[in-house]
Design brief:
heterodimer, A: 111 residues, mainly beta, five-stranded antiparallel beta sheet, B: 115 residues, seven-stranded mixed beta sheet, globular
Chain lengths: 111, 115
C-alpha cells in the first residue's frame, strides 16, 4: 500500500514569513510529485510539480525533492493571508493518473 | 475556457436508488479519474481511464462503476448507493506533457448525501 504522509497541521505563520510544508512517501518507484492547494469546499488546484532531485522555483513557491530520503517539501515565501488553505502532496509512480494523495496540511497565515 | 465540469454539484438521494454523476472535459485529455474526499481520509482514487474504453480500478472501487465511451466524458455510476458513499466527489483529467510529466485538472466537485 503506497503511503504519502503529511503533518495535518494547522501550520500557523505570520504574514510575510516563509511557510514550510513537508511530505514523505513510501514508494521508492515514485516518479512524479505534485503540490495542490485546496480552499475549503473547493477543488484541488495544482501549484507545483517536480520530477527530479533538487529545487524548482515558481514565483513565491519552491518545491524541493530528495528521492534518496523520499521527501518532498514546499516553501512559500512572503506568505499572504490568501495562502491560507490546505496543501495536498501527491505522488505518482507512472504519471498516468495513478496519483496517491496525502491527507493535507492546513496552512493559516495571519495578518 | 478549458475546464472539467461535473453534474450535479449537489445531490441528496436514498439508499439503493441508482445515480450517475457526469464528468466532461473540453481539453481533449486522454486520462481521466474519479476521486472521493472524506474528512480524515483525504483524496482517494476510485477509478481512472487512460483512454476510450480503457478503465481501471483505483484504491476504492467497490460500489462504483465507470464507463468511457467518448474521450470527453467519464461518468461515475452508483448502482445501489449506500450511506458510506456519502462524500465529496471529484473528477479530474490529465494532460501528459512528456514522460512522467502529468498535469491533472480537477472539476468543481459533487457533494453527495445518501440517506
Amino acid at each position: 500500500q503506497k503511503e504519502v504522509e503529511q503533518n495535518s497541521g494547522p501550520l500557523s505563520v505570520p504574514e510575510g514569513a516563509i511557510a514550510s510544508l513537508n511530505c514523505t512517501y513510501s514508494d521508492r518507484g515514485s516518479q512524479s510529485f505534485f503540490w495542490y492547494r485546496q480552499y475549503s469546499g473547493k477543488s484541488p488546484e495544482l501549484i507545483m510539480s517536480i520530477y527530479s532531485n533538487g529545487d524548482k522555483e515558481d514565483g513565491r513557491f519552491t518545491a524541493q525533492l530528495n528521492k534518496a530520503s523520499q521527501y518532498v517539501s514546499l516553501l512559500i515565501r512572503d506568505s499572504q493571508p490568501s495562502d491560507s488553505a490546505t496543501y495536498l502532496c501527491a505522488v505518482s509512480d507512472s504519471g498516468y493518473s495513478t496519483l496517491t494523495f496525502g491527507k493535507g496540511t492546513m496552512l493559516l497565515v495571519s495578518p | 475556457e478549458a475546464q472539467v465540469t461535473q453534474n450535479p454539484r449537489y445531490l441528496i438521494t436514498v439508499t439503493g436508488k441508482k445515480l450517475t454523476v457526469t464528468c466532461s472535459q473540453n481539453m481533449n485529455h486522454e486520462y481521466m479519474s474519479w476521486y472521493r474526499q472524506d474528512p480524515g481520509l483525504g483524496l482517494r482514487q476510485i477509478y481512472y481511464s487512460m483512454n476510450v474504453e480503457v478503465t481501471d480500478k483505483g484504491d476504492v472501487p467497490e460500489g462504483y462503476k465507470v464507463s468511457r465511451k467518448e474521450k470527453r466524458n467519464f461518468p461515475l455510476i452508483l448502482e445501489s448507493p449506500s450511506p458510506n458513499q456519502t462524500s465529496l466527489y471529484f473528477c479530474a483529467s490529465s494532460f501528459i506533457a512528456g514522460p512522467s510529466q502529468e498535469t491533472q485538472y480537477f472539476g468543481p466537485g459533487t457533494r453527495l448525501l445518501v440517506l
